[in-house]
Amino acid sequence: MTFFRQKRPVLVLSNDLYNHTSLDIIVAAITSNISMRDFSVLIAPDDLSEGRLKTESVVRVDKIYTFSKKIVTSQFGHLGNDKMNEIRAMINKLLT
């Protein structure tokens, strides 16, 4: 998970190979407005395998963007495998 200049948290979806060979990253929006919508996945502080999440938040898998890596300002954690698998399944549901 990463912050951008305007301090908007996002979840990096692109894999390490893409991230190391591209000038861009593929991300999904994260919001602390936890009104659940279709194609949203709730994340809690204990879902992180590394780092810290201040409050429960929602990953909006219907809000996927490509950004230049130059605008990344910081990283604040990593989601655990179980939660990442849940997010991948939701993306698959969105696209199929």
TrEMBL record:
One of its GO terms (molecular function) is DNA binding. One of its GO terms (biological process) is mRNA catabolic process. Keywords: Toxin-antitoxin system. InterPro entries: PemK-like, Plasmid_toxin/cell-grow_inhib. Pfam families: PemK_toxin. It comes from the Bacteria. Belongs to the PemK/MazF family. This is Type II toxin-antitoxin system PemK/MazF family toxin. The lineage of its organism: Bacteria, Bacillati, Bacillota, Bacilli, Bacillales.
